[in-house]
Amino acid sequence: MAPALPTAASAETAPRAAAVLFDAMLTPHRSLSPRGFIVLMSLVCAVSFTAGLAFFLMGAWPVVGFMGADVLLIYLAFRINYRRARMFEEVVLTRDALVVRRVDHWGAEKRWTFQPYWLQVRMDDPPEHESQLTLRSHGKSLAIGAFLTAEERLSLARELQQHLAVCRCAPGPVSI
Fold this sequence. Notes:
The protein is an alpha+beta fold.
């Protein structure tokens, strides 16, 4: 079900504190486009068919089935990879809360809410491949952006720290 859109009356009565200060949608990178996938699978099929035909002509006809199984397994591996690319994380900062919403490749959603005034954003600088971007508050921690490169995680951490600093220092409505 789609969320209800606010009406003019509810937008006027909504508190100013609910204004979004930072909003980031984090998605895994997939370098192979759908067109590239078709080209790659066409090449795999052509090579497999040619090799299978050669083995068939030499009298080794059972090999043809294994060549077809190889193509099927490669296709299934890419399907799984593309399904995993459906996952995403959304990070939304308002004056009252930082909300992290993670949707996995099956569509299951999890939410974490942090109070921005006590939130710590931690990331190694300079980043290493295994460096995690973690959000910590009140003894709880959450790693986000695990599928991003180390440089992308560091950039996100810096931007989030900047917006949190502005949020913490501003007494009234915040605009960035």
